[in-house]
Amino acid sequence: MFFGTELVADYGTFNADAASVAAALQARGIGPGDRVAIFMKNVPDYLIVEYAAWYAGAAVVPINAKLHAREAAWIIEDSGATVVFATPGGADDLAAIQLEIPIIDVSGDDFADMKKAQPLAVVTPRAPGDMAWLFYTSGTTGKPKGVIITHDMLIGMALCYFPDVDQVRAEDSTIYAAPMSHGAGLYNLMHVLVGASHVFPPSGGFDEAEIFELARHYGSAHLFAAPTMVKRLTQMAKASGQSGTGLRTITYGGGPMYVADIIEAVDHFGPVFVQIYGQGECPMAVTALSRSDVADRAHPNWRERLISVGRAQSLVEVMIGDAHGQAMAPGETGEIMVRGDLVMPGYWNNPDASAKTIVDGWLLTGDMGFLDADGYLTLQDRSKDMIISGGTNIYPREVEEALMFHDGVAEVSVVGRPEPEWGEDVVAFVVRAEGSNVDEAALDAHCLDQIARFKRPKAYFWVSELPKNNYGKVLKTELRERLTEMSDG
Predict the structure, then answer these.
(1) Which CATH topology does 2-126 take?
(2) Stated pTM of the model
């Protein structure tokens, strides 16, 4: 493990520290069936704590360090965690709200003493179906739900990565620039499996210049990135003359990647990109769009494939279902349904939500999309984001894709606005590109050249930025609230 370019632990030290902390946890009465919360920034001790909990037989509850302490406390209490590990700042914030379980600051003496404990001699055995990770959804529409991720789900996700996403070698390095509470952290497993290096940026997060510097230093770097991070990397690289030397693979997912953005990224960095589509309920493992598919410009359907999120990963089946859960034909849009060994057994202490989400063994994702004849899945939108205007379904992403091809648009989000006669109107919140003065008339003309007339926005709202959660996802609920406020006003 490296902090920047400084080696802080080899695998022998990593294992010994995890075994010592595990013994210290067991000495506190923490073992099989217990939950260990992790409210930490991306630092090397994150992996020590995670593997210590597993060695002790407990499950981990990773919490995004960007959350407010009260949001974190709600997750900690809902999970029934018996201890929480935190980095400085987060530990103080939790202490200030008088959390009722021990808070261990990994920079303090208590954690240092735990590392000095006599190491656990044998890893505590667990069954494949036992919970390993309690993953809390981002909660953009209410309180987050705890997704039960089992040991065999994590093993399956890691093993699917090699044939479906990318190969990992001992000489590779993974850079943790996105929160380890989510995708970036899940992807530590396949790098541990082969003995690759783990690199923690000193900034503690995502800094474009730092990523390029670390990639150059390590020479064969992997990075999990949200689409917004890919766009920022491309913009910074083009502005500063960076080539991306040392970046071997950038796996992107967690939100919509607009075609214009990924074309620009591939044109600049070359064939280093792989896309995955997953949910916490099927972690990182619904579909994958291969490196060759992302970079291909020769296939007659390359653009349609680039719009897609790829094909089903090895351990799952993907089906498009109608309102009754019946399979639909290729090209028909319906709800994306998934089943297989990588689908969760249910939500934590929430049987009603579990019953609505897992039906006859199928995970109802809430996402709308269609499969083509070759099995490529194209994601449309969340079902709740679909706009129905005059009885016709309009998918915001299609409109957003069209607008993103205009040079004057940096970011855009499309939502429905209540309209008495038609039910809903299409409206767009637009962030202009730097130096652009693009107006409504120009975007109207652009849309009419790209999509059907009835799909074009009926109004444009110019904003300096789009509201996003801590994972970079646009909060369309907040945009709808703005529309309501404007209507009331």
Answers:
(1) Rossmann fold (3.40.50)
(2) 0.85
| Ranges for all domains in the chain classified under CATH 3.40.50.980 | 2-126
- Give me the CATH code for the 164-383 domain, please: 3.40.50.12780
Query: What pLDDT was estimated at residue 422?
Result: 79
Written in H, E and C, the secondary structure of 453-469 is HHHCCCEEEECCCCCEC
Query: For the CA atoms of the chain, what is the radius of gyration?
Result: 23
What one-character-per-residue DSSP string does 63-131 give? --TTS-HHHHHHHHHHHT-SEEEE-TTHHHHHHHTT-SS-EEETTSHHHHHHHTSPPPSSPPP--TTSE
pLDDT at 140: 47
Query: CA nearest 339: which of 367, 310, 369, 319?
Result: 319
Domain 388-488, CATH class in plain words? alpha beta
Query: Which residues, at least 6 apart from 65, have a Cβ–Cβ distance to it below 8 Å?
Result: 39, 40, 41, 42, 87, 90, 179, 181
Asked if residue 225 lies in contact with residue 252, where contact means CB atoms within 8 angstroms, the answer is yes
Start-to-end CA distance of the chain, whole Å, equals: 55
CATH 3.40.50.12780 segments of the chain? 164-383
The conformation of residue 433, written as its DSSP 8-state character, comes to P
Is a pLDDT exceeding 90 seen at residue 387?
A: no
421: buried, middle or exposed (CB in 10 Å: 19+, 13-18, 0-12)? exposed
Question: Which part of the chain has CATH 3.30.300.30?
Answer: 388-488
Query: Do 416 and 424 meet the contact criterion of CB atoms below 8 Å apart?
Result: yes
